[in-house]
Design brief:
By secondary structure, the chain is an alpha/beta fold. It has 15 helices and 18 strands. β17, α10 and β18 form a beta-alpha-beta unit. α13 packs antiparallel against α14. The radius of gyration is 25 Å and the shape is elongated. The structure holds 5'-O-[(L-methionyl)-sulphamoyl]adenosine (MSP). The site of 5'-O-[(L-methionyl)-sulphamoyl]adenosine has 20 residues, from β2, α1, α7 and β15.
């Protein structure tokens, strides 16, 4: 087992304000970082997130607002930071690709790849999707439009660009995947990548002539570095320019959504192989959710912000509902109506009620519990395999069982003091163990429960999760 854990989220485009899609990945990373901090010690965990600020998408959005791209990025970046504060996201560093320290590392890494002969000048002609910030291939097109951005007309572009020898590098990438030098999870995603690698992979353009909002190509300042190359390098650059962080490279886990798997599983690895840098150990691509069966989008007006969730369910309610909505790794659907019902069922009626019932029963009594920090082995296994949904499901079953135990034993009827102490002692111990298991997921709730049951006298307080009407 490694003695350190470095987890990353994608760095989000600043053309968009934070929504619960971004929150989903960031929250999963937060849970893992919190878990590993307990396991390995705070100083051995590094949790990196940030914003992707260059490229056409951002400069276009800034132009529409009539401000400079930098001013625009500054304002949206702070919205991401605000959202993460609201959701109690404990990132260790927030990287911005417009930081000169990042730009310096990008420049030197690219120069290295160029010097090794993996980059050459050529002409590109094709369709570009600004939504994806990429040139479209045949398989990306449906009726002449990008599959992911059907309402954006792809732009015809022809220009002299620098190209990465991806066709050659992709063979090495495939070799590394097959030799399990790094892992792509879930398995179906790995097979997808292998399938694509075994068919024809073309060289890709890694610079732009007509885009000024980017990092200049070091050996030809008339071009800027392709935004995706600049962005991917963030994972590495943060470990190089921050003091004392070099020990964290290679990354242990890149958490991403399945939309950006090819970039992470292939292009990123190709760049690192070309530069002679160690490869990250694991890439996990989770699925996408829809909202009430529909894609979440500006045009449909169904975008949900993290703030909306926190206002309605509280920070831990929001965290619980997002992660317990569907298995991590699968695609799923989210609906506020179902969130309301699940909040009431799982949090107000099950967990919240269990805690209040037991606290009330213990009031005025002297229940002494030696707090054990022991965590069930299955729990660790589930988290380490990223079955975050499974962990919450399992905790919920334990809550249901504990409530049933109360119904069955009817402690309010027990006259024998010894027996009463045994029943309540069991319950308090169980609740403290649940608080322990929930700590990475619901940090505030877990702390409240611990305070309530490990203080000098147990006293019923405010409900943890007030019922929604
Ligand atoms: N800037 C690039 C990433 C560069 S990483 C080197 C980017 N940014 S993004 O703002 O578009 O964020 C994409 C990510 O947001 C997805 O990979 C996923 O983590 C998250 N999600 C966005 N919508 C989502 C859903 N509907 N469902 C789940 N996750 C979603 O791509």
């Amino acid at each position: 087992m490694d003695k350190k854990f470095f987890v990353t989220t994608p760095i989000y485009y600043v053309n968009d304000v934070p929504h619960i899609g971004h929150a989903y990945t960031t929250l999963a990373a937060d849970i893992l970082a919190r878990y590993y901090r307990e396991k390995l010690g705070r100083e051995n965990v590094f949790f990196l997130t940030g914003t992707d600020e260059h490229g056409q998408k951002v400069s276009q959005a800034a132009k529409e607002k009539g401000v400079s791209p930098k001013e625009f990025s500054d304002s949206v970046t702070s919205r991401f930071k605000d959202a993460w504060r609201l959701l109690n996201i404990s990132y260790d560093y927030f990287i911005r690709t417009t930081d000169p320290k990042h730009e310096k590392i990008v420049t030197s890494l690219l120069q290295k790849i160029y010097d090794k002969g993996y980059i050459y000048k050529g002409t590109y002609e094709g369709l570009y999707c600004i939504g994806c910030e990429k040139f479209l291939t045949e398989s990306d097109l449906v009726g002449g439009r990008c599959l992911l951005h059907p309402n954006k007309e792809p732009v015809k572009q022809k220009e002299d660009n620098y190209f990465l020898r991806l066709s050659e590098l992709s063979k090495k990438v495939l070799g590394k995947i097959e030799e399990e030098e790094y892992e792509i999870l879930p398995k179906e995603r790995k097979n997808e990548v292998i399938g694509r690698l075994k068919s024809r992979v073309e060289d890709i353009s890694i610079s732009r002539g007509g885009v000024s909002w980017g990092i200049p190509v070091p050996w030809d300042k008339s071009q800027t570095i392709y935004v995706w190359v600049d962005a991917l390098i963030n994972y590495y650059s943060a470990t190089q320019f921050l003091e004392g962080k070099t020990k964290f490279w290679p990354a242990d886990l890149h958490l991403i959504g399945k939309d950006i798997l090819w970039f992470h599983a292939v292009i990123w690895q190709a760049l690192l192989i070309a530069a002679g840098v160690d490869l990250p150990k694991k890439i996990f691509a989770h699925g996408f959710f829809t909202i009430d069966g529909q894609k979440m989008s500006k045009s449909l007006g169904n975008i949900i912000s993290p703030k909306q969730l926190v206002d309605r369910y509280g920070v831990d309610g929001a965290r619980y509902l997002l992660i317990s909505a569907y298995p991590f790794g699968d695609d799923g659907d989210i609906s506020l109506k179902r969130f309301d019902a699940k909040y009431n069922a799982d949090l107000a009626d099950a967990l919240g009620n269990l805690v209040s019932r037991v606290a009330k029963l213990c009031e005025g009594l002297n229940i002494k519990i030696s707090q054990s920090k022991k965590i069930p082995a299955r729990y660790c296994e589930d988290i380490e395999h990223l079955d975050l949904y499974g962990v919450l499901n399992n905790v919920h079953s334990q809550v249901i069982l504990a409530n049933r135990y109360i119904d069955k034993n009817e402690p309010w009827k027990i006259k024998n003091q010894k027996k009463l102490n045994a029943v309540l002692g069991y319950l308090v111990k169980k609740i403290l163990s649940l608080a322990n298991q929930l700590r990475p997921f619901l940090p505030e709730t877990s702390e409240k429960i611990e305070k309530l049951f490990s203080g000098p006298g147990i006293k019923l307080g405010e409900p943890l999760f007030p019922r929604l009407r």
